[in-house]
Every structure is written in structure tokens, then in C-alpha cells.
Amino acid sequence: MNGLSVPEKLSINKYELDESPHIKVDQEICRERCQNRVCLFICPAKVYNEQNGELAVDHAGCLECGTCLVACTQKAIDWQYPAGGFGIVYRNG
Ligand code: SF4
After folding, report:
1. Which residues span the domain enclosing 54?
2. How many domains in the chain?
3. CATH of the domain at 46
């Protein structure tokens, strides 16, 4: 296991998808106050992307690291842990 790259280790993880998203974005705050959309760059799972000028979230791949919640200084991101039994299951430490 130690010889694996980070992407290879991440691919071993298992996700129990909760259809109800645990990440929500306040589009109005994001559009009107955000200067840099730092979430596009800091998320290790690349969960955030832009679609037609709006911030889109693919919560299914979230690693639950909490980085985006801390990095969004405008508090446009509403982030909760997934409901019990859902979310990522780490299989490699
Ligand atoms: Fe990305 Fe971490 Fe935020 Fe999940 S918690 S969306 S992995 S930055």
C-alpha cells in the first residue's frame, strides 16, 4: 500500500452516497461578494466547478476535510457532515 500514489490511494476509498447534498452554496453571496472563488482551487477532490457563471458542487466526491468551509471567507458554503452511514469510508488510513 505504501508504494501507491495519492490518487491511487484515494481510488481505494468507498463512498456511500447520500442523495441529499451535505454541501450547499448560497449563490447570491458567492456571486456578489466572492472575489476569487478559492474553493475551485483548494478542494483536493475538485468537488467545485463553475457552470454558466454559477458555482456548482458535486458533493459525492467530498473527502470531508473541511477545507472549503474554512477557506470561504464570505460564508457562502453551508457544509455539514453527511448523514450517519453516508459519505466517505477511508480504506487506507
Ligand atoms: Fe473539497 Fe474538503 Fe470541502 Fe469536501 S470538505 S468539498 S473535499 S475542500
Report:
1. 20-80
2. 1
3. 3.30.70.20
Q: Are 16 and 64 in contact (CB under 8 A)?
A: no
Q: Please list the pLDDT of the chain residue by residue as tens digits (93 residues).
A: 568 887 888 888 999 999 999 999 999 999 999 999 999 999 999 999 999 989 999 999 999 999 999 999 999 999 999 999 899 998 865
Nearest to 59 by CA among 69, 4, 74, 9: 69
Cell numbers 482551487 correspond to what residue?
Answer: 41
Residue 9 located in a structural domain:
no
User: Which atom of ligand 1 is nearest to 71's Cα?
Assistant: 8
On whether residue 10 sits in a domain, the answer given is no
**Whole-structure pTM over 0.90, yes or no?**
no
Nearest protein CA to atom 2 of ligand 1, as residue: 65
Q: How far is the CA of 67 from the centre of ligand 1 (A)?
A: 6
